[in-house]
Design goal:
Layout lengths: L1 H31 L8 H13 L1 H10 L1
Helix pairs in contact: 1-2, 1-3
Length: 65
């Protein structure tokens, strides 16, 4: 039962991360760093997994800025 709850929580966290990363890739990254505007598509492909896993940290940084 505990494992089921942990797996559900991990799934919710990853789902929220995927939703946030879509916003972050298209709009949020340029708010944190102006130099990322006009970056090639493979740059966005590289930072996508990190933005999925670290979405809570990135969200806090965006709120503070």
């Amino acid at each position: 039962m505990i494992v089921d709850i942990l797996l559900i929580l991990m799934g919710v966290y990853l789902l929220l991360g995927i939703v946030f990363s879509i916003y972050f890739i298209f709009a949020g990254a340029s708010k944190l760093d102006e130099d990322v505007k006009g970056s090639p598509w493979h740059f966005w492909l590289i930072i996508w997994p990190g933005s999925v896993l670290l979405w809570s940290v990135l969200l806090l940084k965006m709120i503070r800025k």
